[in-house]
């Protein structure tokens, strides 16, 4: 079951907008097992040029779904973003299904969906030059390089930290300037 946390900048989240978002995003629930709980964080922005930006992120235990869309029509932007999220789920589910067919399977994977928490860091005046403006804590899931690259791309990040399934070491994959990928292995 999805809960919603909606926020608007320069726009009031009316009941009609809320209902449209909930109706569209609830279609994604068919990809999850029963009892799966997650919170969909929805940010709506309206710019001076009347263009809207819709961001939806759904953090779960083993996967974070995230997409954003800019459009002149808010409702069309919502429809496009739900399509993006659905493509992400299908792509990831296909990859995971292929990889875990003999192990625990996708159903067990999506059954353990859980909400992750972000925690902010305190900033003092003396620490401006090297201040940490955001701290995240998350559980490292054992996976291989290919799955880590997939997660990184789905999140839209330039790097991703993961536990290597074979060596049990903490590794980092990153996107290089030439568009290829790099791997940092720790000892």
Automatic annotation (TrEMBL):
Chief location category: cytoplasm
Indicate where this protein resides in the cell: Cytoplasm
User: Carries keyword Cytoplasm?
Assistant: yes
- Which terms under GO biological process does the entry name? negative regulation of translational elongation
- The entry's keywords: Cytoplasm, Translation regulation
Domain named Sigma 54 modulation/S30EA ribosomal protein C-terminal is located at 128-183
Q: Name one GO cellular component term.
A: cytosolic small ribosomal subunit
- Give the similarity note: Belongs to the HPF/YfiA ribosome-associated protein family. Long HPF subfamily.
Q: Which NCBIfam families match?
A: yfiA (TIGR00741)
Which protein is depicted? Ribosome hibernation promoting factor
Organism expressing this protein natively = Filibacter tadaridae
Q: What is the lineage of its organism?
A: Bacteria, Bacillati, Bacillota, Bacilli, Bacillales
Q: Which gene encodes it?
A: yvyD
């Amino acid at each position: 079951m999805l809960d919603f946390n909606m926020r608007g900048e320069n726009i009031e989240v009316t009941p009609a907008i809320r209902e449209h978002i909930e109706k569209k995003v609830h279609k994604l629930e068919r990809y999850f097992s029963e009892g799966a709980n997650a919170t969909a964080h929805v940010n709506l922005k309206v710019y001076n040029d009347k263009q809207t930006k819709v961001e939806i992120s759904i953090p779960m235990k083993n996967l974070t779904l995230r997409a954003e869309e800019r459009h002149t029509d808010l409702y069309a932007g919502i429809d496009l973003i739900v399509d993006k999220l659905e493509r992400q789920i299908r792509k990831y589910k296909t990859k995971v299904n292929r990889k875990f067919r003999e192990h625990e399977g996708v159903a067990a994977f999506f059954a353990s969906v859980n909400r992750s928490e972000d925690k902010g860091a305190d900033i003092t005046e003396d620490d401006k030059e090297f201040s940490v403006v955001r701290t995240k804590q998350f559980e490292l899931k054992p996976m291989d390089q290919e799955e880590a690259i997939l997660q990184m791309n789905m999140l839209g990040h330039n790097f991703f930290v993961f536990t290597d399934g074979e060596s049990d070491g903490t590794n980092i994959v990153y996107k290089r300037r030439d568009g290829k990928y790099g791997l940092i292995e720790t000892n």
